[in-house]
Amino acid sequence: MLTYERIYAVVRQIPRGKIATYGQVAELAGLVGKPRLVGYALYRVDPMSDVPWQRVINAKGEVSESTRRNGSDYMQRAMLEDEGVVFDRRGRVDLNQYKWRPPNDVTEQALEAFMENLG
């Protein structure tokens, strides 16, 4: 699906040791207001693919847990910890410290894609 490919293209840009939220990825992919779509797209990713799916968490700074993920919640947290991301005692990441802040051109490209979808 082309929409999923746009999501994957954004997620591939998140550097090691940084995280993005589902909503942030949606916006950058030109899918404003569709963070669940990002979640659905990342659920379909093979854990061994080149898409660093583990770097996308919820807006609370938590790994979104689901019984459908068959334990990959724990794998996601372990992968992030291996990258140097620290979780507090509540299982949250400090978004001020770890949230990815992409260069302006990434945001501009996302806005252009969103505007194209409106027209």
Radius of gyration: 14 Å
Order of helices and strands: HEHHEHHH
Mean pLDDT: 86
- The number of helical segments is 6
What distance lies between the first and last C-alpha atoms, to the nearest angstrom? 20 Å
Shape estimate: globular
The CATH class assignment is Mainly Alpha
- Largest β-sheet summary: 2 strands, parallel
> How many domain units?
1
Task: Detail the topology: elements first, then pairings.
Layout: H1 2-11, E1 20-21, H2 22-28, H3 35-43, E2 56-57, H4 72-82, H5 95-98, H6 104-118
What does this structure look like?
By secondary structure, this protein is mainly alpha-helical. Helix 2 packs across helix 3. The protein is built from 6 helices and 2 strands. The relative contact order is 0.19. It is globular and about 45 Å long. It has a single domain, classed as Winged helix-like DNA-binding domain superfamily/Winged helix DNA-binding domain (Arc Repressor Mutant, subunit A, Orthogonal Bundle), CATH 1.10.10. The two termini are 20 Å apart.
